[in-house]
Write a structure and sequence with these properties.
CATH topology of the largest domain: Rossmann fold
Distance between the termini: 64 Å
Radius of gyration: 24 Å
Largest sheet: 6 strands, mixed
Order of helices and strands: EHEHEHEHHHEHEEHHEHEHHEHH
Low-confidence stretches: 147-157, 384-389
Bound molecules: guanosine-5'-triphosphate, magnesium ion
Number of strands: 10
Number of helices: 14
Strand content: 5-15%
Helix content: 40-55%
Length: about 400
């Protein structure tokens, strides 16, 4: 039975002994936000402490019975598990829930569903399709195995086995086609980048936790109209805009910089999704400067900074110059009415993160943007000497 457009959902997070109460609360809140972004309605949130997940169903059969009871009582259609489950475990749960008209998703399923709702360009759509093939594939094979055991057994070609073979071939063909299409797009992107390199344009990449205000900042700095929304993963494609630096004396025009927006990061971003969006993140890998945008009104700000840094490290860009942009400062004055408190907060951030040229701004009101532009120029012009690569090119050319 297909799900309704706004499915009523039971959320569950299985947490190990290393996760304390506060962390567990934050994880569930984030899962609720993700569910909201998808369009689902959270009817109940559950946390289960377990040092080792149940190998058959991950959550354990007792908990599953409780969920079925709750589901009937609260008319839920969907169970969302905030963990990465094995295909076989998802299949087991699915079997049990189906009789009660409920479906099950794990964390990757949920994020993939949000991605496919938000994908606009052909490239983003293809990347999601590829990630879905990788994620769903083993589950389909798992189902095939199950059917084979039921219908045939070792040595006989049961109905299940045939189905699995057909499905496998079909998925493999689809995967090959999607990869081919993606390569074509990547080649044209590379051409763009090479042209940019020849023109000697510096590039600045805007990164940060999802919903920090990256697209809003791109718009504010470049007069672009990137999609902005109070939802997670509003942006899935790289969008590029031009920002003009001040003109040096005697020159008619300042030089342009290319600013690019990127997909937002999130804690425990499933690795297959990082891989899926690697090519979009190539802009970040090649950037001359990274703007790390942070929602300064978020109580979990410091944890999120750490999580973004971890992903940047995985991308191998920890050596690129970086500016920390503390955004949404306008919300401080709504929350904290006393200006000395605000000054103290700003001072605290600037001291704690002094190695990262911190700037406090509001993409919404425009406050602090001039200071940010100056900081960008200062950081890049500190590098005004051509890069090693450019120098090599000059010698060669
Ligand atoms: N009050 C306030 N809200 C802001 C500011 N900047 C962005 N927002 C809001 O924050 C929400 C997220 O903004 P986006 O620019 O879409 O954030 P993003 O980082 O691009 O998000 P994703 O693409 O989903 O990862 C939107 O509702 C914006 O209106 C700001 O300076 N002040
Ligand atoms: Mg965005």
């Amino acid at each position: 039975m297909p799900l309704s457009l706004t499915p009523r959902a039971i959320l569950i997070d299985i947490v190990g002994p290393k996760i304390n109460e506060a962390m567990a609360k934050r994880r569930l809140l984030e899962l609720e936000s993700l569910t909201n972004t998808y369009g689902g309605i959270t009817v109940v949130k559950l946390i289960q402490k377990r040092s080792v997940p149940d190998y058959r169903t991950y959550i354990g059969s007792g908990k599953l019975e409780e969920i079925i009871r709750l589901g009937q009582e609260l008319k839920a259609e969907l169970l969302i598990v905030n963990n990465l489950l094995k295909p076989k475990q998802l299949f087991e749960i699915e079997q049990k829930l189906r009789a009660h008209h409920m479906a099950v998703w794990d964390r990757v399923d949920l994020i993939l569903k949000i991605f496919s709702k938000h994908a606009k360009t052909a490239e983003a759509k293809l990347q999601i399709k590829l990630a879905a093939i990788h994620h769903m594939g083993p589950r389909i094979f798992g189902m095939g195995m199950e059917m084979m055991q039921q219908t045939g057994g070792i040595g006989t070609r049961g109905l299940g086995e045939t189905n699995t073979e057909i499905m496998k071939r079909h998925l493999a063909e689809q995967e090959k086609q999607v990869k081919k299409d993606l390569e074509r797009i990547a080649r044209s992107r590379l051409n763009h980048r090479q042209r940019r390199d020849r023109l000697g344009l510096k590039t600045v990449s805007i990164v940060g936790y999802t919903n920090a205000g990256k697209s809003s900042l791109l718009n504010a700095l470049t007069n672009k109209k990137a999609y902005v929304a109070n939802e997670l993963f509003a942006t899935l494609d790289t969008r590029v805009g031009k920002m003009w630096m001040k003109q040096p004396e005697g020159e008619r025009m300042g030089s342009p910089l290319l600013l690019s927006d990127t997909i937002g990061f999130i804690q425990d971003l499933p690795p297959q999704l990082i891989d899926a969006f690697r090519s979009t993140l190539d802009e970040t890998i090649d950037a001359d400067l990274i703007l790390h945008v942070i929602d300064a009104s978020d109580p979990y700000m410091r944890d999120k900074i750490q999580e973004v840094e971890t992903i940047l490290e995985q991308l191998g860009v920890s050596r690129t110059p970086k500016i920390y942009v503390f955004n949404k400062m306008d919300l401080w004055s709504t929350k904290l009415r006393i200006s000395t408190k605000i000054r103290k907060l700003e001072h605290g951030l600037k001291t704690d993160y002094q190695n990262w040229s911190p700037v406090v701004v509001s993409a919404m009101t425009g406050a602090g943007l001039e200071e940010l532009k100056q900081q960008i120029e200062k950081t890049l012009c500190g590098n005004l000497l051509p890069s090693l690569r450019d120098r090599k090119k000059m010698v060669a050319g």
